[in-house]
Input
Amino acid sequence: MIRIAIMGAGRMGTLIRTTAESAVDAAGAPAFEVAAQVGFDLAAAETAPAADVLIDFSNVACLPAVVSYVRRCGCALVSGTTGYAPEQLDELRALGDIAPVVWSGNYSIGVAALRHLTAQATRELPGFDIEIVECHHNQKADAPSGTAKMLLEAVEEARADDALHPVYGRSGMCGARDAHEVGVHALRGGTVAGVHTVSFFGPDEEVSLTHRATSRQIFVNGALAAATKLVGKPAGFYTFDELMF
Output
């Protein structure tokens, strides 16, 4: 049985807890024990019981509490919080010196496949204009989404173009489209769990790749699967692909 601690008591934190508490292993025994869950009172992280792994789907303001808990307990960390500044991601990477850590903007297996397909299409469609559109519920705090940033990185790595650069939305007399730009657009509304589309526009043809999440459950399942694989790993900063594939 894996002891987990959860950072965040919102929709994702609650769903992680209920899913973990009902999960069983191959022998039918409980797969997880929830040792602690930290909500709005971040000071509670200082005295929360130690766990094998901390699962964090909270927000950037919780990072100091996350770092403090991992350093105190020496536990693994599964982080799905998005909106971090580069220096905050550096703090997470530094935790890899003392514990196994995985961070991802998306824990869906389908999105992992979309990322691979995006890189493949970028290589095989040279000269095509690329646009990334993401859509999320009206309560999402950061934009563009962490997944959209990951898809942008897949494009940047697959296309050898030092002049390639993102353009976040367009307005006014912006002129003709630069062949070296990648448009990144964020839509917000309703209760959308997450839709990501990467479109490739060429002469007289278009190719679009779309992943549509119909609930947050897919992210919870991926995070718990990552936690299972991460516990017992050597200290280090891992990617979701490295753990799952």
